[in-house]
Amino acid sequence: MSVALEGSVLTPDGWRAGRLRCDAGVIAVEGAPTETPAAPFVLPGFVDLHVHGGGGADMMAGGDAIRRAARLHARHGTTALLATSVTAPPEATAAFLDAVRDAMREGAPEGAQEGARVLGAHLEGPFLNPAKLGAQPPFAAAPDLALLADWLKRAPVLAMTFAPECDPGGALLAALKAAGVRPQIGHTLCSYAEGTAALLAGCGATHLFNAMSGLAHRDNGAAGAALAHAEFAEIIPDLIHVEAGAILAARRAIPGLYGVTDATAGAGMPDGVYALGGQRVIKRGGAMRLESGALAGSALTMDAALRNLVAIGLPLAEASRRLSATPAAWLGRADIGRLAPGARADVVTLNGALEVERVLIGGRPVDLMRA
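Structure (tokenized):
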């Protein structure tokens, strides 16, 4: 069934005042170019490459948890995501990947779309520096290529976060690249030289500035290497993990800087106690924290991320791109994150306050009221 959406449509070539026509894919964008877009804004659906949970569901719990979290994020404009693990024993990581596979197999019934499409998995660990785990559970391990090979058979692993100093010979990085997995450095105490080598070998960076060796004028680490050399990097624009000035500095330095939520079960939920990979995390004041007070993922949704980026000075078109087209480009996907003929009809419509009014995933409407 064909759908037509009226408004200011954001295309790869800029804004058009007119209409988007689509079925499962974008058929056409009609109308004249405009330099003064006005609501409603018709944007590409958000692409979130780092999601641990939402709607009260922790993705590591398996079962229906991944689908439940995907439903929550779809109501906030996310149309595609990577289900993201936490550091865990090997059998728990295997079970998580089996759950990702099952979530990907579940088709939506005719009519309404239930949740954001799960593109695959992002393994955040376990090959991390045990001294820089942050809120990750204490299951860091040395790289194990046999384990990795087993995990890659269970579900599409599209990204993996690892600490480059724990892979001194580069065997893990070589295996990830050979398998088509996007490698990302994070939870690392690597030196500037180690970080630079990994980035020049094609790595991205996970939640820039957080859980990594930092930036200083005489003692640089992973963050300094990323600002100097990264082509792509995640950042969490909740304005809690990273202050506005640091986001703006990273924006000037890294062409492919893109936003992620790093959302946990508390996203979209009231204050209270939730789970993150078997740990208790507390939502209070818009933040997720361990009982120690350390940040533990976020309560962010992508529509809020968009509003935050606009609030700190990014034009709406750029903020949208850094939450859709840019993460899609990191995955090498031209069929999502953009509104152009031939792309999937993954669309979010926002009002003048940049609040979600309508979401389509593959041309199907999302029920914005469903829990």
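The radius of gyration is 19 Å. The chain has ten helices and 21 strands.
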